[in-house]
Amino acid sequence: MASGAADPAVPPPLPSDLQGWNRLERAARAAAIALHEWRRRATEAENEVQRLRGELEQVNALGSLPSLQTGDEIRRLRAENAVLTSRAAEARQRVSGLLARLAVLENRP
To answer: For position 40, what pLDDT does the model report?
Structure first.
């Protein structure tokens, strides 16, 4: 039998059979894509659960949560820290300006 010649014992597929196989192939491909996406999402969810468990263990290791009064004190100290950080940055700028002016004065004859 020559290559490329059709086998006379096997009838050619009917157009409706081809359409059915094409639909089946598309459905199988869509199912595989959906399965892959669900596996990816499940893996992400499992990783997130592990991360949150780790953080919860860290929080539990610290002991009980601070009281409302302690929380207010923490907020006050953070605000004070922000003000002091801002003032330190302003002082650095002024010192840099003074050093630049001093350098100019030193270079004068």
So the answer is: 92
